[in-house]
Amino acid sequence: MERDEYFLGYRHAEQERLQRQAQELEPEARWLLDQIGLPAGARVVEIGCGPRGCLDLLAERVGPNGEVVGVERSDEAVGMARTFIAEHNLSNLRVLHADARQTGLPRGAFDLAMARLVLINVPHPEEVVSEMAALVRSGGVVALHEADWMASACDPPLPAWDRLNDLMFAFARKNGNDLLIGRRLPRMLREAGLVEVRVNPLVHVPPLGHSRRMLLLDLVENLRDRVLSEQLIDAADLDESMASVRRHLEDPHTLEVFTLYFQAWARKA
Fold it and tell me: pLDDT 10s digit of each residue in the chain, 269 long?
């Protein structure tokens, strides 16, 4: 039975990781916004913004005469995002506590609707894309940034790495999530009625010491209680596999490819 639950859960450690992620992925987000050409004074909505997302980058782009609305369903993330807004005095930005599928925002009111690493974490992601398409005006843009785990690999190979990746896929199937959703983005945008679809692939190969080097372990830790309760693995095997992967990634000679990502964006006719 599918559960309408954010795949990675709402642990405080996950909210802190999402704050770090905003900084780690900032160059890619800036590149995407450059391609879209968001003008000053625009109205923008970020779906599933979490505790920070791209909110500050969007606020910077639209300027004081523009408006940015973040949409987030996690109570803690909403609180953290609002604190971030207050601390940075971002007067053109607000965060709405709502579901991505039914935001309650006015139809056709935004120049851009964007979401980053949201669709991979929710069941029925096409409903989110449909809502995003409804929110933008004619000529507006829907932009997505998602992962595709087809390229998750390490070299030299390690059985424990494969076990943890298999575990992620097994839990995703039970939770109704698609870890290969990145490749589907162009099709999902077209099926939502959007045109002029563009795609940019990204590959992350974090070296030793990089903040995303241990990302697989961080994500598995988010799922620990749930994969154990689902009896997808026992605690001893999980701990042994995670320790083995950590040792492997602490070796500077280990090459890690932590997934392929796709940025895709399209215009509403």
Answer: 334 455 555 556 666 776 787 788 899 999 999 999 999 999 999 999 998 999 999 999 999 999 999 999 988 889 989 999 999 999 999 999 999 999 999 999 999 999 999 999 999 999 999 999 999 999 999 999 999 999 899 999 999 999 999 999 999 999 999 999 999 999 999 999 999 999 999 999 999 999 899 999 999 998 999 999 999 999 999 999 999 999 999 999 999 998 899 999 999 99
Sketch the domain layout of the chain as residue ranges.
12-152+176-206+259-268
- Position 186, amino acid: P
Eight-state DSSP code of residue 246? H
Three-class HEC string of 118-185 = CHHHCCCHHHHHHHHHHHEEEEEEEEEEEEEHHHCEEECCCHHHHHHHHHHHHHHHHHCCCCCHHHHH
| Domain 12-152+176-206+259-268 class in CATH | alpha beta
